[in-house]
Design a protein that fits this description.
Length: about 350
């Protein structure tokens, strides 16, 4: 892996903010380069103390702005969830990380494969670390006579970028392509693209040179999501969870869902928590089903819970079912799962 962190941006922010203490947070896969960057900063700026938040972080929704301020830091660097937004919260700055691994071999393999299936138009998407590879990939597909589409970015998303729960660029082109191709070795993101677009989706892994169809995995997640909605229909007592993570906190959405469920005679307790895990939820023995308005992937392909734990789109489907409507199998074909 050839990971590059945007040290220039870190240096520019330090130059302009002149902090005495800075905090870093980053996903587990980037801990090593983040610790190296923190060491470099301490060495080149002897007056600066760095602190690495060792809790896990899973997205640009998972910053530590208030923790960093509580720790007395003037600046927090959120590393590796590249977005189009420079600053999150009061003192948190997004710092990009890129992986320069070449895609040419796996893209050529994919092009031959797509041609053998008669796919003429492919939707290209990727996640944070590979955005810089989209244009080159388009050119390679072009040489094989395959047209590519890259959807426009929106909100925090760059053109062609997806998060695990936000798919605007993929969704906007889904009806004009034969299949989607996700650059990078993330089954997690490829499954999200497949479920949110309803299109055949292939993961192009530049490390193993594998072109992987994720349809079976996506189908399995969808079945589980639908089954949870049916199980939740029988519950009388619900817990509706507000997630305490900075970018996932949606109290209004939780309160709306609570009221909707109460209108069908359900008993609903409003809960707030940071990490939604089976152990924590099993503590609430009287509650038969949960809805959580934090990360939808916790419900869709996170833990195996002993009771239904619905994400927002599943909760919407449940409300429709309680109103007497059929449960549509396209409940996850959406631009955004929050
Ligand atoms: S809510 Fe979940 S899927 Fe969405 S960006 Fe955050 S961690 Fe990723």
């Amino acid at each position: 892996m050839t990971l590059r962190i945007d040290l220039q941006k870190i240096e520019a922010i330090i130059e302009s903010c002149k902090p005495s203490r800075v905090v870093f947070n980053t996903p587990d896969g980037l801990l090593k380069i983040t610790m190296d960057a923190a060491k470099k900063i301490e060495k080149s700026h002897p007056g600066i103390q760095t602190i690495l938040v060792a809790d896990p972080t899973y997205g640009s929704c998972d910053t530590v702005d208030s923790d960093a301020r509580a720790l007395g830091a003037e600046v927090a660097f959120h590393i590796g969830h590249n977005t189009s937004i420079q600053k999150l919260g009061k003192i948190s700055y997004n710092i990009d990380v890129w992986d320069d691994v070449p895609f040419s071999e796996v893209v050529e393999k994919a092009a031959r494969f797509f041609n053998s299936f008669g796919f003429r138009r492919i939707g290209l998407v990727t996640f944070a670390q590979y955005l810089q590879s989209l244009d080159e990939t388009s050119k390679i597909f072009g040489k094989f006579g395959i047209e590519t589409r890259i959807g426009k970015g929106l909100g925090q998303l760059h053109d062609g970028q997806v998060f695990g729960c936000e798919f605007y660029p993929a969704f906007s082109i889904k009806d004009s392509v034969d299949a989607m191709a996700l650059l990078g070795n993330s089954v997690f993101h490829a499954i999200g693209v497949c479920l949110s677009t309803g299109r055949p989706t292939y993961m192009l892994d530049p490390y193993s040179n594998e072109v992987r169809n994720v349809q079976d995995l996506a189908d399995e997640r969808l079945k589980r999501a639908i089954l949870s909605v049916y199980k939740a229909r029988e519950a009388e007592h619900f817990g509706v969870i507000i997630c305490l993570k900075e970018g996932q906190m949606m109290p209004d959405q939780s309160i709306r869902i609570k009221k909707d469920l109460e209108s069908f005679g359900k008993i609903v307790d409003l809960l707030a928590m940071r990490e939604i895990t089976p152990d924590r939820l099993d503590t609430f023995t009287g509650i038969q089903a949960f809805v959580q308005t934090g990360c939808p992937r916790v419900s869709i392909d996170g833990y195996t819970f002993s009771k239904p734990v619905l994400s927002v789109p599943q909760a919407m489907a449940l409300i429709r079912v309680l109103s007497g409507q059929e449960l549509e199998p396209d409940l996850l074909i959406r631009k955004h799962w929050l």
